[in-house]
Design goal:
Length: 336
């Protein structure tokens, strides 16, 4: 059996002039073969939204066929589209309700109207983040939120985030983000520097637990000046393994000033190169620092590891690529 219909999608205000309309009609098709249901849709559907269709479809084999007959960008669950913290959440010409409208249109085409997705109430179903940045100099300070534990990426214009949301703090360092979906989000702080194409990243990965209908509060301290001004390069020059210990020899180009010390962390290779960099917050091992040139990881079992030597430029105790000065990651294979 074959069915088809039109799904009517509301266009975001900033794109109405480009699309020359306030609503857009897109084709929706359905092919049913025995106990399989093929829903043919004109967009990319994220896994979370696709599962909403799978849970509600009465057929044993519900299948989404995406990017068919048109290309309308990413369709996500409504909370993700409302908060606009992910690339997919922001990646469409259409309003945040687009994902809900799509899934409900599919179910209605199937005659399943009793289990439709309900609209999101931002006041009850979403949360907010309120906070303050403490710094001796607040000039140019901005804060941003991301859904993943990773450094921000900047687009065009230079200070525009590729994903997530970013705002300038007020004269007291205060800020507020509304319409944030429940779960953990991660805060970053940067400073716009006159004459520079990209902001100076001061910290990232500050976790904030968001709950529906509540305001989560956070305070962040960042130094006026970062350490390591005279450190040009950190290089792991030699790696050896003996007596269940990994030894790193590190060369430093430049010099350490008073109060500056190098550190070394060890991670599993399979964790270190994931886009979600949560492993950086909890290293597998922290090396004993016998000097600023020799580091030892003890009681290391066979496996694939990554070692990094680094300088904590903002004194927060966390390795933050893009903020801290660090060596290139060194792959270390430990065999029996």
């Amino acid at each position: 059996m074959f069915k088809r219909a039109k799904v009517v999608l509301p266009v975001k205000k900033q794109f109405m002039t480009y699309l020359k309309r306030g609503h857009y009609e897109a084709p929706l098709q359905m092919l049913i073969i025995n106990d399989a249901c093929f829903a043919i849709v004109p967009c990319e559907v994220t896994a979370d939204l696709g599962l909403e269709f799978v849970k509600r479809c009465k057929y044993e084999y519900p299948i989404l066929v995406t990017v068919s007959n048109d290309y309308l960008g990413y369709f996500t669950p409504e909370p993700e589209a409302l908060e606009e913290l992910t690339y997919e959440g922001r990646g469409s010409f259409f309003e945040a309700s687009r994902g809900r409208i799509l899934i409900n249109s599919i179910l209605e085409l199937l005659g399943e109207k009793e289990n439709l997705l309900k609209p999101v109430d931002p006041e009850k179903d979403m949360g907010a983040v309120e906070g303050r940045v403490f710094c001796e100099d607040l000039e140019g300070i901005h804060v941003g939120l991301l859904r993943e534990y990773r450094a921000p990426a900047y687009g065009d214009p230079p200070s525009a985030p590729m994903y997530g949301r970013r705002i300038r703090v007020d004269s007291k360092g205060k800020f507020f983000f509304d319409k944030i979906a429940p779960g953990i989000v991660y805060l970053y702080v940067d400073r716009e520097v006159p004459g520079e194409k990209r902001p100076l990243l001061l910290t990232w990965g500050v976790p904030i637990q968001v709950s529906a209908g509540k305001v989560s509060r956070v305070e962040v301290c960042v130094p006026k000046e970062l350490k390591g001004r005279d450190v040009e390069e950190i290089d792991v020059s030699e790696v050896t393994y003996e007596n269940h210990s990994i030894l790193l020899k590190v060369k430093l180009k430049g010099k350490l000033n008073d109060g500056e010390v190098l550190r070394a962390h060890l991670y599993y290779t399979k964790d270190f190169f994931k886009p979600h960099r949560l492993c950086l917050a909890t290293p597998l091992a922290v090396a004993e620092n016998t000097s600023n040139s020799v580091f030892v990881f003890k009681e290391i079992t066979p496996g694939e590891y990554v070692a990094v030597a680094w300088l904590d430029v903002n004194d927060n105790g966390r390795l933050e690529p893009g903020v801290d000065k660090m060596s290139k990651p060194v792959l270390v294979t430990v065999k029996e």
